[in-house]
Amino acid sequence: MEDTYRHKGLRRQLVKVVKSKGIKDQKILDAINKIPRHFFLMDSALVEHAYQDKAFPIGEGQTISQPYTVAFQTEKLEVKPGDKVLEIGTGSGYQAIVLLEMGAKVYTIEYQKKLYERTRKFLPSLGYNANFFYGDGSQGLPRHAPYDKIIVTAGAPTVPSALIEQLKVGGMLVIPVGDSRAQKMLRITKVDEDKIRKEEFTDFAFVPLLGKDGWS
Ligand code: SAM
User: Fold this and answer.
1) How far apart are CA 120 and CA 151, in angstroms?
2) Residue 183 gets which letter from DSSP?
3) Helix 94-101 crosses helix 113-125 at what angle (to 10 degrees)?
4) Tell me, what CATH number does 163's domain have?
5) Is omega for the bond preceding 146 within 30 degrees of 0, making it cis?
6) Residue 134 forms part of a structural domain
7) Domain that residue 84 falls in
8) Strand runs (DSSP E) across 118-182, as ranges?
9) Among candidates 191, 141, 185, which has minimal Cα distance to 163?
């Protein structure tokens, strides 16, 4: 698939839209400007869709998140170069690439085998390398813990305690929590081994987090 001037123009428009919704971090805007989101479409005839600020299907009943949502979660995560970041819900790999563009070392786990297999091959073909895992991310990824940051890209019924346990002191977890219709974005900071600070932001609508501490 090609990345033409037209695609680049559509991306610049998308950056303007995301910026107009309040995203300020220039590194995130630069990442959106750089990543060819149309490469993630299953149907290349739908290229216009790739540069609308919308989620779209990626197979297995899952979606690539809306660019604004990706940008919002990334901004709240306050990613610094060298941060060890765990992403729950690899999906298409788009969010993982944004984190890599921020300079993070990325560990990403996916529950759907087909998506895991597709994305772990697809990202290196674009020149990006993350650490890919298949399994139930509602339990985190204990064998590589602790993490500086954890991002959950599916809607959870509650905050899984395993994720807080796997954060470093000073680390942050960004997670949408709510019911099947809407979830509030939460940021949990691990202030101390046994103390957290919780902040609440606006509502979003994600596909459900599955697994032991998810909806199934
Ligand atoms: N970050 C993804 C992207 O950039 O495309 C978003 C994908 S989608 C909104 C959420 C993903 O979470 C889906 O791929 C879904 O299969 C995955 N998921 C749901 N429950 C999970 C779990 N318990 N562990 C790991 N992944 C899970």
Assistant:
1) 18
2) E
3) 40
4) 3.40.50.150
5) yes
6) yes
7) 59-204
8) 131-134, 147-152, 167-178
9) 141
- CA 5 to ligand 1 center in whole angstroms: 31
Coil vs helix vs strand at 202: strand
CA of 140 from ligand 1 middle (Å) equals 13
94-101 vs 67-77: helix axis angle to the nearest 10?
40
The response to whether residue 154 sits with its C-beta less than 6 Å from ligand 1 reads yes
Q: pLDDT in tens for each of the 216 residues of the chain?
A: 789 999 999 999 999 999 999 999 999 999 999 999 999 887 777 777 899 999 988 888 888 999 999 999 999 999 999 999 999 999 999 999 999 999 999 999 999 999 999 999 999 999 999 999 999 999 999 999 999 999 999 999 999 999 999 999 999 999 999 998 999 999 999 999 999 999 999 999 999 999 999 998
Q: Give the residue, by CA position, lying nearest to ligand 1 atom 14.
A: 91
Does residue 183 line the site of ligand 1, with CB under 6 A? no
Which H or E element spans position 99? helix 94-101
CA 88 – ligand 1 centroid, Å: 6
Residue 197 lies in a domain: yes
Residue 5 lies inside a defined structural domain of this protein: no
In a domain? residue 165: yes
Number of independent structural domains in the chain: 1
**Residues facing residue 178 across a β-bridge:** 183
* Catalytic (active site) residue 65: yes
